[in-house]
Design goal:
The structure holds 2 protein chains of 2 kinds. Chain A is an alpha/beta fold. Chain A has helices at 63-68, 75-83, 107-120, 133-148, 165-175, 188-200, 221-237, 252-255, 259-262, 274-292, 302-315; strands at residues 16-19, 26-29, 48-54, 90-94, 125-128, 156-160, 179-183, 208-211, 248-250, 296-299. Chain A contains 11 helices and 10 strands. Chain B has helices at 16-24, 27-40, 56-70, 83-92, 112-119, 137-153, 170-173, 177-189, 210-224, 236-248, and strands at residues 5-12, 44-48, 76-79, 101-106, 123-127, 161-164, 193-194, 228-231. In chain B, α1 (16-24) crosses α2 (27-40) and α2 (27-40) packs across α3 (56-70). The chains are: A alpha/beta, B alpha/beta. The interface between A and B is medium-sized, with 17 and 12 residues.
Chain lengths: 316, 261
């Protein structure tokens, strides 16, 4: 008997969230099938790639990254280059220098930089805080305000946590009309609870994304993958309105911080090129995230961006 | 895998307020009950217009349009013995959030309501009885098979027939309760959906006892696989039990606020 393909299409679909403006805007989510299952039903919005740059500069000691940003004298010039990286869908500006441990740069200076970057690039932008809960709750409010000023840039703010969701989500989405990411650390129940709490503030699920946690492949990644999968199934199969937000997963911040990417070839000659290892870590982690259900991954190396972009092209 | 479906029972012509509102085509009392029940967690609303022999068709259409237009097209369960009124209601029902439910067919005189549901792509509640109360589960299962075949002959998806085991009043038929639960389990094992008027079990009990008894029955019935029920969503104890059972059955993902959503 001939094989008959039964399409597994769910009655419920992931929310669609748009960032950016005009014809440069991009949309995340919208699918009603399992991740990348285009053979079951078309996926209108392919998974997206964000290119991360830090206000403290690019990742040092990686020839491919250094070559790509060669000549850029400041973050704004870096942002322009990153925005034109082949395969990049959106820019992720990380305000690391605002962290009290990284120089504690003032909120005014950070916001000034955000404004300049928003003027300099025409692709959609996500702005990430400095990963200090207290500072981020003040910083991200001002970032959202700056994004709305003048011509609204419709950016994505990363992230609202359990500890600061009220300040961050209220400012980002309610006061200044931007989009907000709810971040939880590999905990499906907390992920849902945080979404509920943000929703109770009056913020529509349509203005939200989820970061369910991240890890490099081999570093507890299976917990990340199973969390993403479980949340995606609850959204699709159980039509859970509090879990239907598209999922964004930072990858480069994890993969460029592990030994496989950092150890030099001199110390580990048998491991081969450090850069090739780093790209491999980034690519394999990102591909696994997309297979688990991420609607967007955040990467750094131009080769990784190109590879994952081609992977998505070939699967769509 | 899907959440228990709460059909709100409070738009019922047995209530003097609703009966009067229906007679006078007064929207307010009906809309108030509709909105209250939705806020309390109803997914469907039952609309019982009584026998409504004279103006049933017009009344049902008025009620369906009124409730759906004011309540974001909540799907409705059309409840009357007047088949023409049900049919009229289906014609104006907006299916964007779910198909209408025909309430109800049985294996006796009202079996043709299955045909009505099939012809209009509606869901049908199918009472597993023909006339009176079935003697045992063999008899219930016979009726179930008859109605399942009838639906499938008319092209219905078995998922769209929600079998009603016929909940029985404890005061009078206490010895039959476990049998009803066993039957729900049989339906569940066959992959069939189920529904029914659960609060019938506590009829004639004191008011303060009814929520306790109904909640216990609901928990036991959900354990056996009951997939929906026609209940009063204003019964907080019942709704808290239901939401907790949905978590235990893994129908929905736990979050600390699960009682509030």
């Amino acid at each position: 008997m001939a094989y008959k393909n039964e399409a597994q299409v769910f009655p419920s679909s992931i929310n669609t969230l748009t960032i950016g403006i005009g014809d440069k805007a991009i949309a995340f989510g919208g699918e009603n099938v399992l991740p990348l299952y285009t053979f079951d039903a078309p996926i209108e919005h392919r998974p997206k790639i964000g290119v991360a740059i830090s206000d403290m500069g690019y990742i040092k000691g990686v020839p491919g990254i250094e070559k790509f940003y060669a000549g850029a004298e400041n973050v704004i010039e870096m942002a322009k280059l990153a925005a034109n990286m082949p395969g990049a869908d959106f820019l992720v500006l990380c305000l690391d220098s605002a962290n009290p441990n990284n120089g504690d740069k003032s909120i005014e200076e950070c916001v000034d930089l955000v404004k300049k970057v928003l003027e300099a690039v025409d692709i959609p932008v996500a702005v990430e805080g400095c990963k200090n809960i207290e500072k981020d709750s003040r910083l991200l409010e001002k970032v959202a305000e700056a994004a709305q000023e003048g011509s609204d840039k419709n950016i994505l703010i990363l992230s609202a946590h359990e500890e600061n969701y009220k300040a961050v989500a209220t400012a980002a989405a309610l006061a200044y009309g931007q989009n907000v990411t709810a971040e939880s650390a590999v905990d499906i129940n907390l992920a849902k609870q945080l979404n509920v709490l943000i929703n109770v503030l009056g913020i529509s699920p349509e203005k939200m994304m989820m970061n369910l946690g991240s890890a490099a492949a081999g570093y507890g990644f299976e917990y990340i993958a199973s969390t993403i999968e479980r949340v995606k199934m609850a959204a699709l199969a159980q039509d859970d309105a509090m879990l239907k937000m598209p999922i964004i997963t930072p990858v480069s911040s994890e993969t460029w911080a592990v030994k496989e990417s950092l150890a030099s070839q001199e110390d580990y000659p048998e491991w081969g090129s450090a850069e090739a290892r780093g790209v491999n870590m980034e690519v394999s982690t990102a591909a696994a995230c997309l297979a688990a259900g991420s609607n967007a991954v955040i990467l750094a190396h131009p080769d990784s961006v190109k590879t994952i972009s081609e992977l998505i092209d070939n699967l769509m | 895998m899907s959440k228990f479906i709460v059909i709100g029972e409070r738009i019922h012509c047995i209530s003097p307020v609703i009966r009067e509102a229906m007679a006078n085509r007064d929207p307010e009392p009906i809309l108030k009950r509709a909105k209250d029940q939705i806020a309390q967690g109803a997914v469907y609303l039952d609309v019982n217009i009584g026998p409504a022999g004279k103006d049933g068709e017009e009344l049902m259409q008025w009620a369906v349009k009124l409730i759906q237009e004011e309540c974001d097209n909540i799907p409705l369960c059309l409840d009357t013995v007047n088949t023409k009124a049900i049919e009229a209601g289906i014609k104006v029902h907006n299916n964007s959030r779910g198909k209408p439910i025909v309430n109800s067919a049985d294996a006796g005189d009202r079996i043709s309501n299955i045909d009505l549901a099939a012809a209009n792509d509606a869901i049908c509640i199918a009472l597993c009885s023909a006339a009176g109360i079935p003697a045992d589960n063999d008899e219930r299962m016979g009726y179930c098979q008859t109605m399942l075949e009838r639906g499938m002959e008319h092209g219905m998806d078995p998922e769209d027939i929600w079998f009603d085991p016929l909940f029985l009043v404890v005061k009078g038929m206490q010895d039959k309760q476990m049998e009803v639960l066993d039957f729900i389990k049989m339906l569940s094992d066959m992959g069939l959906s189920s529904s029914g008027g659960l609060s019938n079990i506590s009829n004639m009990m004191p008011h303060h006892v009814r929520p306790v008894m109904d909640s216990a029955m609901l928990a036991m019935a959900m354990y056996c696989g009951l997939t929906s029920a026609i209940v009063n969503p204003g019964d907080l104890r019942l709704m808290e039990t239901l939401r907790s059972c949905d978590i235990i059955r893994n129908n929905t993902l736990y979050a600390d606020s699960y009682l509030d959503i």
